Amino acid sequence: MTQDPFLQAAVEEARQGLSEGGIPIGSVLVKDGRVVARGRNRRVQDDDPMTHAEIDCLRKAGRLGSYAGTTLYSTLMPCYLCSGAVVQFGIKKVVVGESKTFPGAPAFMREHGVEVVDLGDEDCVRLMRAFIAARPALWNEDIGR
Q: Of 10, 21, 25, 135, nearest to 71 (Cα)?
């Protein structure tokens, strides 16, 4: 089981998304040791290609005024779209469950001063591998293939 409580909250979001027929990727935004927003990939549920987990989370965070001191957690390495939002809003730390099933854009974030921590969490890997095996066409749609 995932040990980090914030990553666990992101995993809960991912599982909720899966139960809704969506893609199991979850995200939480943390500030001062508490979750200020939660999100999940809602592309299927909302019929919206922009509603990735990190984007959903940031939308739910609303206008914080400043994202200084926040950390974004995601079950999967953020893609370029989501990494761009991280850079745009000045989020300086991203913690991800895994990048084995999707490499994402860690170099882009690091080039822009973001600390990227990849936990290599096996629960997150298993969740994505099972989804990709069960729904390869939906997964390929999500990653633009």
A: 10
Closest among 102, 107, 109 to 82, alpha carbons compared: 109
Residue of 12, 13, 54, 111 with catalytic role: 54
Block mean pLDDT (10 aa), the chain, length 145: 90 98 98 97 96 97 93 98 97 98 97 98 97 94 82
Q: Using only C-alpha atoms, what is the Rg of the chain?
A: 14
Long-range contacts: 109-115, Cβ < 8 Å, 24+?
109/78, 109/83, 112/87, 114/83, 114/86, 114/87
Residue 34's DSSP bridge partners are 31
Answer yes or no: 54 catalytic. yes
Cα–Cα distance for residue pair 33/74, rounded to 1 Å: 16
